[in-house]
Amino acid sequence: MIFGFTRQRHKKLDEKYNMYYVLYMTHFGSTIRTQRESLRREDRRFSLRQVAQRIGVEPAYLSKIERGDVAPPSEATTIRLARELGENPDVLLALAGKVSSDLQEIIRKRPQLFAELIRQMREAPDDAILRVVREVRDGDW
Known about the structure:
The structure is a single chain. This protein is about 75% helix and about 0% strand. By secondary structure, the chain is mainly alpha-helical. Helix 1 crosses helix 3, helix 4 (about 75-85) crosses helix 5 and helix 6 crosses helix 7. The longest helix has about 35 residues, at about 5-40. It is elongated and about 45 Å long. The chain starts with 6 loop residues before the first helix and ends with a helix.
């Protein structure tokens, strides 16, 4: 037994982590790197060192993120990175396998309703989801 887990349970956790790594960490890092390098071609201020300095992390850490050697950074760092690269913070958080704290708070207030809403919209086309968003935003209900 390892920390209260049976070997079988521990193996399942390892498999789940490996799947998380493949789906999120490598895709998140490669997306960040691709965007940063694209911007660097036009503007030298987007070197790894300069971007790291502006978002408040060590260049070596940002390099490890881009290579997928470490887990995606915290919510705050991911948001700073998104803004620096001109990306949507919610999209980068999703690529990191995270949900912003403000959305978590909204969901916590009515978890059952939001869970059902999201599950019902899983297969809906984008235009249907946009229509719902506009109706809620504009108060047409």
